[in-house]
Structures are given as structure tokens and as C-alpha cells.
Design brief:
By secondary structure, the protein is α/β, with parallel strands linked by helices. Helix content is 39%, strand content 14%. The protein has two domains: 5-94 and 169-275, Metal-dependent hydrolases (TIM Barrel), CATH 3.20.20.140; 101-159, DNA polymerase, domain 1. Strand 6 (217-221), helix 9 (227-240) and strand 7 form a beta-alpha-beta unit. The longest helix is centred in the middle third of the chain and has 27 residues, at 87-113. The chain is globular and about 55 Å long.
Length: 283
């Protein structure tokens, strides 16, 4: 069987719309043979489905760790195959999730000051129990209130990173996230670093500083990277011998992204496994 590896997906344990079981079913339907469930700052979904993955499918332990540079630029770090019981990493992700609550309250407050009819209670009504709260849940609340028609419109009008309503995460720096992932025996791969359509992006110089800090790889094959951005990143990873990954960043019906639209080569996956020393179990 040909390997089809998607190393970036989300469930409703963070800001996706599918339950982990629903995601697993859609992975099977899409012909994906190996996938990473990379919920934001959470491995709860992985725990839910690890024992029910069908033969022929491999579930990869992963998480998308929220980070923030010292100048308040949001960065996401994918961690793979770390020790799921590593206290330092798990505690850091839990703290970020708690901080997201205060952040959401402040964003909603700014919207209310602008006369927009939305409340924190409206947002919580869109969050599944135990999930990591985020702006997509606020977007869903705005849809339900009739303020926008879909998530994309909410982000375009109100929730993008340059919006006057935006407030950055209170989360570890990318350097700290790399250290935590690697000390937990995992592999650290920066997610969509040059996706300029998302807002401000890191510079090539800063990305090189993250390589010096121990970054293992770069997610190049992602919907939000243009061809020129992919080319620039490919040149950089070749220069430094980094790993290259691809993923759909699937969120269910919350985004247009489709499972398997970007994939990771088997040779790169094998290199990830060689570097990891944290989680050694199967699905």
C-alpha cells in the first residue's frame, strides 16, 4: 500500500469541528495511512482514539504548541512522538490553555466596546467539554449570532492578527517550545512559518536562530504557503539539513482544508522516527 502521511490535523479537542472518532473515520475514508492528531496544546484526542485505530492506519502522537516571540508574534510548533507523560511539556500546554480563557475574555471585551453583540457565554456554547478555546470558537459564536456567515468572514473582518481586536497568546517562546518538545524526546517542526496570508510572519533570520535553538524541521507543504514561500523554505532546509513535512491542517468544516491535500514523504517520516526518543508505542 502506498503511504499517505498527513502530519497536521485537528479535532474538537481544540478548534476542529470533528470529534476524534469522526476524524479517524474521515482519515480512513480519505485513504490516509498515517496521521498526526495535532490539537492545540492538547493530546486529549489522541488518548481518546489510540486504542481504536483500525489495522492499516497509524495514529501519530502530536500536538501543535502555541508560541509567542518576544515581540508578540504568534508562532505554532508541531511536536511529534514526545513522551506523553512528560510533566514539563504537558504542564506548559495546560498553562497555555488556561491563559487562552483570559485572552478570549479580553478579545470579547474589545468587540463589545465596538458595539458588537457577542458575549463570553456565546463563545463557551461553541466549545466542546475540555477543548482548547480559540478564535475559531469565537467565529462560530459570531456565525450563530448572525454577525457573519462563516469562519473565514469572521477572521477577515474581526479576528485576523492585524485586527484591533486581536490579543496575542500568553504562551512560551518558540525557543522554549523547542526545548520542551526535545527534552520530552520529541521532534520539533515549525508549522507554516512563511504563510503571509495569515498575517505577520517570522523572518528568515529568526528562523535560522530557531535552527540554532534545535529546531528539527519545517512544515513546507501547507495550503497557506505560496510557491515562492515553499521555494525559499526548501532552499533553507537543504542548507541546514532539516526535516520537511506536509499536512492538511484539517479542521473539519471550520476550514476549507481537506485531509491529505498536503502530505509528508515516507523518507521524512522515517527520519522523524529516527530522531524521536519519547513515545515508542504504537497507535
Amino acid at each position: 500500500m502506498t503511504s499517505r502521511i498527513d502530519l497536521h490535523t485537528h479535532s474538537n479537542e481544540s478548534d476542529g469541528t470533528d470529534t476524534p472518532l469522526e476524524l479517524l473515520s474521515k482519515v480512513v475514508e480519505a485513504g490516509i495511512t498515517r496521521f498526526a492528531l495535532t490539537d492545540h496544546d492538547s493530546i486529549a484526542g489522541w488518548h481518546q482514539i489510540r486504542g481504536v485505530v483500525p489495522t492499516g492506519i497509524e495514529l501519530v502522537l502530536g500536538a501543535e504548541v502555541s508560541c509567542q516571540t518576544i515581540d508578540a508574534l504568534s508562532v505554532h510548533m508541531l511536536g511529534f512522538l514526545f513522551n506523553p507523560e512528560n510533566a514539563a511539556l504537558i504542564d506548559s500546554m495546560n498553562e497555555t490553555r488556561v491563559n487562552r480563557i483570559t485572552r478570549m475574555e479580553r478579545i470579547v471585551g474589545r468587540l463589545q466596546e465596538a458595539g458588537i453583540d457577542i458575549s463570553v457565554e456565546d463563545v463557551y456554547a461553541e466549545v466542546s467539554e475540555g477543548a482548547t478555546i480559540g478564535r475559531p470558537h469565537l467565529a462560530d459564536a459570531m456565525i450563530r449570532k448572525g454577525l457573519v456567515s462563516e469562519r473565514g468572514e469572521a477572521f477577515e473582518k474581526f479576528l485576523h492578527n492585524r485586527s484591533k481586536f486581536y490579543i496575542p497568546d500568553a504562551s512560551p517562546t518558540p525557543e522554549e517550545a523547542i526545548r520542551l518538545i526535545k527534552e520530552a524526546g520529541g521532534v520539533a517542526v515549525i508549522a507554516h512559518p512563511f504563510a503571509s496570508l495569515r498575517g505577520r510572519i517570522i523572518s528568515s533570520e529568526y528562523l535560522e536562530s530557531l535552527i540554532e535553538a534545535g529546531l528539527d524541521g519545517v512544515e513546507i507543504y501547507h495550503r497557506d504557503h505560496s510557491e515562492s514561500e515553499r521555494g525559499e523554505l526548501l532552499a533553507l532546509v537543504r542548507r541546514y539539513g532539516l526535516l520537511v513535512t506536509g499536512g492538511s491542517d484539517y479542521h473539519g468544516h471550520g476550514k476549507v482544508n481537506r485531509l491529505g491535500e498536503n502530505l509528508t514523504e515516507l523518507s521524512q517520516w522515517e527520519k522523524i522516527c529516527e530522531r524521536a526518543s519519547g513515545y515508542q508505542g504504537g497507535s
